[in-house]
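Attaching the record inline, Q. Sequence:
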Amino acid sequence: MKARFLLLLCLMLAAFPAFAADAPKESTYDRVMRTKTIRCSYAVYPPTLMKDPNSGKITGIFHDLIEEAARLHGFKVEWTAEVDYGTIIQGFDTGRYDMFCAALWPGPERAQQALFTVPLYYSGVGIFVRADDHRFDGHPEKLNAPEYKFSISSDGDINDSVARADFPLAQRVAIAPMAPPSMMFEDVANKKTDAVLAEVAFVSDFLKVHPGALRNIVPADPVRVFPNVYMLPKNEFQFKSMMDTVLQTLLYQGYVNKLIDKYAGTGGGFYKAAKPYEVSK
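Structure, as predicted:
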């Protein structure tokens, strides 16, 4: 009898790892609620998110906004990892962080692998060339030729997707991984590439340091208008609902627009979100 009991016990212990392996994985929502901490990944993208190279201090629209959203929930924010836009999904898959907390434009490729918050404001995308380059004035379609090169941040990023869709015959030249996005503009200014698709606000920030280096050849007709959002892991609908609610609260309070004015100025090139209601008079 004792031998039979010991055999049964051994079989149960041997099976235990299998049972443990089948235990449900803790959701992002449950982990955040348990730890009261949102682990943020980020990428430097002025003026939405900036990082002082000396102190490491992070500022910007999306930084201040997520910090305030977390405060309203009684959470803290842990700035866990600086990542490249092309590698955000990998960090979600490994559970390295809970959100991507810098500005991001949703697109079909990303929508297959992640969720997005409500739009916070919008960005118009222009076609920027060197200031003294007039080859494409009035005819941006001329860029759709094999001899011309577009700067992109990485394969699969939004500027790459738009270039492939609208200028499929042109070449696409990616900057080095983890290089600042401003390197795309420098490559155009230094004649390594011919054009870059970028939001007006971001290029305006670059032009403060390099005045007169680039110009937009479609100033009145953006090639795209994209919402700026936070990105969340796929299937985390309860976490998305929680974050959407607090972000909408801050939108309706005018907090988001105040951050835009603070960091980008009233002429910064962002399109503020319209109010989803009308007051009867």
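The domain at 123-225 is CATH 3.40.190.10 (D-Maltodextrin-Binding Protein; domain 2). The radius of gyration is 23 Å.

More tomorrow.
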